[in-house]
């Protein structure tokens, strides 16, 4: 049995029952239940969430991707900064990345003003943060591997020379 198979199926659809997963993996249902319990106990499965198409909600949320650059000192490392930032409920994801900036942070709020105030009042004042660049999400086409939208095809006019 492959824990990876079970993990992939849970990522595909966390609402699959243990009976569904057992059928798809040719395992006994009790084996699937035990595997999921072990994965949860080991901290490999940290939670289950719905993928929401916020664009379809009238009371939509404002989301932003924020680039953060930091300067480290002898007492402060990346993990220290990440621990401080991850505590804020507005922060939905935080990643240390390679490239032109150090952290990629996903933020949500009820308005652009709320998100902007959070970044300027809570994030930017952190002494090690030297620069923030905020990109507001205009439309999401895919989240967590799931395509969003109404499923309609490309509505651009065709062009023939």
Structure description:
- The protein has a four-stranded antiparallel beta sheet. It has a two-stranded antiparallel sheet with strand order 5-6.
- The chain has five helices and six strands, in the order αααβαββαβββ.
- It is of the alpha+beta class and 161 residues long.
- α2 packs across α3 (29-41).
- The protein has helices at residues 3-12, 18-25, 29-41, 78-86, 112-123; strands at residues 62-70, 91-96, 103-109, 129-136, 142-143, 146-147.
- The longest helix is centred in the N-terminal third of the chain and has 13 residues, at 29-41.
Overall residue-averaged pLDDT value: 86
The number of helical elements comes to 5
Q: Could you spell the SSE succession in H and E letters?
A: HHHEHEEHEEE
Total E-strand runs: 6
The percentage of residues in β strands lies in 15-25%
Helicity range: 25-40%
Q: Give the N-to-C terminal Cα separation.
A: 56 Å
- The outline comes out as globular
Question: What does this entry show, briefly?
Answer:
It is built from five helices and six strands. The protein is α+β, with helices and mostly antiparallel strands and 161 residues long. Strand 5 (142-143) and strand 6 form a beta hairpin.
Question: How would the blueprint of this fold be written?
Answer:
Elements: H1 3-12, H2 18-25, H3 29-41, E1 62-70, H4 78-86, E2 91-96, E3 103-109, H5 112-123, E4 129-136, E5 142-143, E6 146-147
Antiparallel strand pairs: 1-3, 1-4, 2-3, 5-6
Helix pairs in contact: 2-3
